[in-house]
Design brief:
This protein has about 400 residues and is an alpha/beta fold. Helix content is about 40%, strand content about 20%. It has 15 helices and 14 strands. The chain has helices spanning about 60-70, 105-115, 125-135, 155-160, 165-170, 180-195, 250-255, 260-270, 275, 285-295, 295-320, 330-335, 340-345, 355-360, 385-395; strands at about 1-10, 15-20, 25-30, 40-45, 50-55, 85-90, 105, 145, 205-210, 215-220, 220-225, 325-330, 365-370, 375-380. It has an 8-stranded mixed beta sheet with strand order 5-4-3-2-1-6-8-7, sandwiched between helices. A 6-stranded mixed beta sheet has the order 11-10-9-12-14-13, sandwiched between helices. A hairpin with a 5-residue loop joins strand 4 (about 40-45) and strand 5 (about 50-55). Helix 1 crosses helix 3, helix 7 (about 250-255) packs across helix 8 and helix 11 crosses helix 13 (about 340-345). The structure holds adenosine monophosphate.
Length: about 400
């Protein structure tokens, strides 16, 4: 069965068509600038050429119509008709406490996702537009919702509660939710496979280090803690997000700079992280790594602070789980940068970690980068959120 995986943003839409039985990618692409001048679709059939076409898209329904046209195109398409798409899997950012697992989309599910809009005002409404557009164009095709937050719903109360008046949890559900759950779930399962061990017997720490970055602790097959919170702003220093800070800083900066809370929050989301720490140089870790090797002050302080924060979380989660069997690195930076993995692991001598430099230099495969005598395993596992969504969708509709 072919599964169409849709990841809908406010003005963009990423898609992949995946054969659920062979788990092979059939085609993928991206619609950009939906509802804005200059919209375009890029489309790549597996093993074929990437094409980019300017095409007006006034809304997400137009975008999905173009996606379906591309997939069924006589010359470059990959399926003869829409009947060959067995189900659609939608990435949904926030499921709140309503969803601890993926689910088939019904009218009731749509209403429950809408209830979470306040918690992810930039993402959930866009995700819902994607669902509505698919419903209109493929009314008979089953759809599944796969939530970024669901994997973390197993966290115990002591991990998800903040130290604020309990009535705010009671009234507004202010708590830690965590994100990147599809990636943390996929990577921790792959880790167990790579180690040839039972998932339920392991203590795993997953470091998802991309432009957005988060760490999770997975004990005996269940997430027990994660670094992102009510929103994705908490936790690690990220590409442009600050991560953890003293909340009093917000009022302090409002007073000093004469800015509103909204303005400061926007800076914490969009102008902070490694972009902010490097004095506005770049949010791209590749640029910063290059500058680090040239001993540029701004890059040295930025990369040092980034690596330190990750190591600190690994230490905290080792304590939370009373040990760790494997630490996994994934996402753009985690998968590709031996330099950052080395820098983080330099803090972890107490875990008996010994990296194998040759293995740490490899890319693109699930690999153990430690020597045989290393007391704790360190793994690199390329994440594949689309495949994870396709797997979940297939399991639900099959
Ligand atoms: P993601 O959000 O997972 O797509 O990751 C994006 C981040 O990964 C960007 O900041 C990239 O600079 C970083 N990245 C990708 N490739 C590399 C690489 N070879 N070395 C260092 N960072 C990389």
């Amino acid at each position: 069965m072919n599964i169409l995986v849709i990841n809908c943003g406010s003005s963009s839409l990423k898609f992949q068509l995946i054969d659920a039985q062979t788990e092979k990618l059939i085609a993928k692409g991206l619609c950009e600038r939906i509802g804005i001048d200059g919209s375009r679709i890029s489309y790549t059939p597996a093993g074929g050429e990437k094409t980019e076409t300017a095409a007006p898209m006034k809304d997400h329904t137009d975008a999905i119509r173009l996606v379906l046209d591309a997939l069924t195109n006589e010359k470059t398409g990959v399926v003869k008709s829409l009947d060959e798409i067995g189900a659609v899997g939608h990435r949904i950012v926030h499921g709140g406490e309503n969803f601890a697992a993926s689910t088939i989309i019904t009218d009731e599910v749509i209403r429950a996702i809408e209830e979470c809009n306040d918690l992810a005002p930039l993402h959930n409404p866009a995700n819902l537009i994607g669902i509505a557009a698919c419903k209109e164009l493929m009314p008979e095709t089953p759809m599944a919702a796969v939530f970024d937050t669901a994997f973390h719903q197993t966290m115990p109360e002591e991990a998800y509660l903040y130290g604020i008046p309990y009535e705010y949890y009671d009234k507004y559900k202010v708590r830690r939710y965590g994100f990147h759950g599809t990636s943390h779930s996929y990577v921790s399962h792959q880790a167990a496979k790579l180690l040839g061990r039972n998932y339920e017997d392991l203590k795993i720490i997953v470091c998802h280090l991309g432009n957005g970055a988060s760490v999770s602790a997975v004990k005996n097959g269940k997430c027990v803690d994660t670094s992102m919170g009510l929103t994705p702003l908490e936790g690690l220093i990220m590409g442009t997000r600050s991560g953890d800070l003293d909340p009093a800083i917000i009022e302090y900066l409002c007073n000093k700079e004469g800015k509103s809370v909204g303005e400061i929050l926007s800076e914490l989301n969009k102008k902070s992280g490694v972009l902010g720490l490097s004095g506005g140089f770049s949010s791209d870790f590749r640029d910063l790594e290059d500058e680090f090797h040239k001993d540029s002050d701004f890059a040295v302080r930025t990369m040092n602070a980034f690596a330190y924060r990750v190591a600190k979380y690994i230490g905290a989660y080792t304590a939370a789980m009373n040990g760790v069997d494997a630490i996994c690195f994934t996402a753009g930076l985690g998968e590709n940068s031996g330099f950052i993995r080395d820098k983080i692991c330099a803090y972890l001598g107490y875990l008996g970690i010994v990296l194998d430099p040759e293995a740490n230099g490899k890319r693109g495969e699930d690999i153990d980068i430690t020597t045989p005598d290393s007391r704790t395993r360190v793994l690199v596992i390329p994440t594949n959120e689309e495949l994870a969504i396709a797997r979940e969708t297939y399991a639900l509709v099959n």
